């Protein structure tokens, strides 16, 4: 998932993934515009030091046993309130792709696998309904999951392997278009809806096998070392075969999780009560400490922020899944000492890039000169100062498993740009005074960023021709292969915290509307991506991805990494166990509890 | 009057159909593709085709529009979702909920905001205007004109946000605005909306003060007002029955405009006060490329303008017998 | 001749307004009496203070902006400074007023029946139904045909003359003792004008109402007034019976007014002789006789007299004027002035109006 700014995240929450994957930089203001009010302070801390990347690994069968690890000082019971801007577009898990809806589904939907918090900033992919995170055989092509004993639907009937198979098969039905495509593609073909139309006409999908009520076997066409990561997506959450109402299921889902939807007023509020047939002993992931949840929608960031700052009455027992502190209150909140124990911060898990168009900027020396000279610090100041973003030096986001740090172009050492090195490289290049056409999203903040880039590049003799572009059509324009631009911003987020949904996409096929925005078509890179995708061992694959990251940056330099936004949220004083999840970048309900 | 109403109603219906058509076709000129939005981030061609089919976007635009239009009058059947009875405005592209129900659900919020605030600003605006006019040039008049100058230069998002920040969060003098249906509890209804009402009224009052004052000053020097006094009518009668009567037409005009643009104004108001009305719905529908919802909110906004125009025109004839309806 | 307590007595009336340019002395020491059943015509140019005087009688000036001095007594009761309710009780009831332009003076928002009826209800405590019946009766009385239907119509649906009849009906609905008619026929064409004036006369004969008729039209005065007051610059310059003032005018200003009236039978190439010059400023009136800058004969009364000292009208009743010329000079000059205008036709040439005067005389 990819997003850059808070409003973009909110857009994401209303189920418009494609838009957010294509969410233009600086879209609709957001925290980026707070920059105008915050001059850089002399005693700044680099947040990179504060936020070490999370450790995410695959857990064992033991790790997969319930109950979840309790947060310190946990208290059970009571009602917790949650306020956000938007209701969830889909309650049918098969139609969920975005992080916010997925996060909500932790309350009502279970899947084969999931992420268990095992310690501070430490997560494991474990079996959720399954007894472990999956058994791999056949060189990574066959994945076998065994269901736990005692896992039940909200009506008390047992969750069976047939339900799991059904849940996967129904994703091929025509009415489901919104969710992730990976498992379906791996089971069939790239354009997976062509080969199978879903189970409703009685046809089954042959390569999911259910030898007994407890066992599900996935037989993929190719090896997929991180299938258990993929299956942790809410899109692969389960739906009861016996109670599947197709289109209408989206309005009346059946819970497999710790709560049942007791009341739902569309776009306004939702009330959750305990699911008596959910057994914490089977669930290593969900704490489900409050007895009841009251969710309310329709609140803008400013209203949410002001309520949390005031912290009165019921608002003390209130938090927000995704609403960040409003841009206009950011400095106030950061500087108010009394709020410090109630703020939550986390850098985004998304990639944020200034892409070169390799079809046009062919000389790697010029690209690298620009990378050396890049005015990282200046941009950070303009977009909100060092409190609101961290400097990224790699293609992969630090939250991705296996990420390894490197800083080829000295973005951290020379945050204001290494002009000498840049001039040196330019002198060696084919054109020491190149002209670069830079397309930018025409927002006030981006205008200022563009001026900073332009001035900086002028210092090394590069002429920037700045081309303002409309926010609404930003991705359509830059997504074209023949876009007439040399450089432009783009974002990308991994669907799970490995590079498997990063490199194959952003350096994948070059086509109009595709996500390979640098138009990198290096046979060596393509071959390496293919090779790593075929690796059966996740750790080996992760290492290889990290090495590829550095190699691409060193030898090709198809992009300059952008700043990594730091999410800032507040919560009510009586809400415990709240933190911004490093994987989903929203506050997970799993550890939430209400203090007395 | 009947002929006038018939003629104007027919014209209004035609206007609305034209607006609907323009909105519909303009929507497809927008760069964002709702089918793409209803398809996952990684969206294979067949999935995109199905998403397009599910939303009914796979037919020629003209056919789509006619089907939509027919749905409004005779209802429509939706694959998998069932029958949508007339007036069917379709199902939301985003959450596949019936648009009509959503609109009906949200409309009371917007209407309550409008009614409550307009009662307040009419009373205060016209009242202050009359007082100012009767005290022309005196301190009261000057205070009123300065106050209305300040009021009219205020913006809802500014005053509203300040009011929320101080009155609700900092000093906790009043509870957070919320909507309780009038039918459920009229007191709670009024209390829940009091703050938005006051803020809205504070901004709009100024217009009415100025308008009332200037017209009233004119009216007071009218011959027929002098006649009324010469007839021995008491001061109050002269003001209410004669002078104020003459200010009704201009007040009705601006009031009509204020009511007509209620949905436009509601966007900001409802956002500022976190209320779930039609204004919020309309902005959401634009952000989400939710065509059926967008159509419904645009039409509602247009209908408001058209209807209030008719009402104001008809009202002119009621207020001023010299006006002939045609 | 003057009774001990005249019906309406105006004594030494002063009305002045505060304006940005200074104090306007609109009425400056005016006195006159009106008796029941008689009509006083007040004539003069625009701005001579005619309307201001009558608004002062009714107390319709804005007290904040106006200074009023002197006495206005209705049957001995002082009206200046009377409290609001007293005045409200008088207005429309004992003293009624007809305004110049019935189109603007009638409310466009109410039916004529309502406008007439509400006066009756206010002063006579009549019910709605009674008021309506009275309104119909009044409309019939002023000669509006089909009154039962027209009572529910709005002023804009009436013609100019009919509208003025509505005004009169409204003014007379409470049988007032005093009717002030401010240019009641100016906005009307000549035939309608005559009808309206006849109507006023008839009504006066029926009810014995005293009428103050404000006009700049000497013809109207000749047709209706018993007594005439000529005003100039806020002051009375000549006063007397209609026959006295129109038949043997004494003040040069009155001569000017008379010779500016076209006469029937006069050759068309004989020019009218309007009073030359413009009315004086009321903020800085000229010293001496306010008329002297426009007067043809200021030297005749002495070298400086007219320019330095203001002539006063004689306080006694009867024909009087405010001019320093001797009666002899006035008689001679009047003849010359007349002769100048009527050279060809001599004294036989008369206007319709003057014929009227002779008839009545």
UniProtKB/TrEMBL annotation, chain A:
Domain of life: Bacteria
Residue ranges of the region described as Disordered: 29-51
One example of a Gene Ontology biological process annotation: peptide transport
InterPro entries per record: Peptide/Ni-bd, SBP_5, SBP_5_dom
Keywords (A to Z) from UniProt: Signal
Gene Ontology MF terms: peptide transmembrane transporter activity
Pfam families: SBP_bac_5 (PF00496)
GO cellular component, one term: ATP-binding cassette (ABC) transporter complex
CDD domains registered for this protein in UniProt: PBP2_clavulanate_OppA2 (cd08506)
Signal peptide per UniProt: 1-24
Positions of the Solute-binding protein family domain: 124-509
Biased composition (Low complexity): 30-39
Protein name (database record): ABC transporter
TrEMBL record, chain B:
Gene3D superfamilies assigned: MetI-like
A family per Pfam: BPD_transp_1
Keyword Membrane part of the UniProt annotation: yes
Keywords: Cell membrane, Membrane, Transmembrane, Transmembrane helix, Transport
UniProt key word GTP-binding: no
Transmembrane domains' residue ranges: 111-134, 146-169, 189-209, 251-273, 293-319
Highest taxon above the source species: Bacteria
Membrane topology, from the record: Multi-pass membrane protein
GO cellular component: plasma membrane
InterPro entries referenced in this protein's UniProt entry, alphabetically: BPD_transp_1_N, MetI-like, MetI-like_sf
CDD domains from the UniProt entry: TM_PBP2
Location(s) in or outside the cell: Cell membrane
ABC transmembrane type-1 domain segment(s): 107-312
Biological-process GO terms, alphabetical: transmembrane transport
Family indicated by similarity: Belongs to the binding-protein-dependent transport system permease family.
Name of the protein in question: ABC transporter permease
From TrEMBL, chain C:
Source taxon at top rank: Bacteria
Record GO biological process: peptide transport
Tagged with keyword Cell inner membrane: no
Pfam families documented for this protein: ABC_tran (PF00005), oligo_HPY (PF08352)
Domain ABC transporter: 8-258
Protein keywords: ATP-binding, Cell membrane, Membrane, Nucleotide-binding, Transport
Membrane topology: Peripheral membrane protein
Cell compartments where the protein resides: Cell membrane
UniProt-listed InterPro entries: AAA+_ATPase, ABC_Ni/Peptide_Import, ABC_transporter-like_ATP-bd, ABC_transporter-like_CS, Oligopep_ABC_C, P-loop_NTPase
Entry's Gene Ontology molecular function annotations: ATP binding; ATP hydrolysis activity
Recorded GO CC terms: plasma membrane
Annotated NCBIfam families: oligo_HPY (TIGR01727)
PANTHER family (UniProt xref): DIPEPTIDE TRANSPORT ATP-BINDING PROTEIN DPPD, OLIGOPEPTIDE TRANSPORT ATP-BINDING PROTEIN APPD
Record-given protein name: Peptide ABC transporter ATP-binding protein
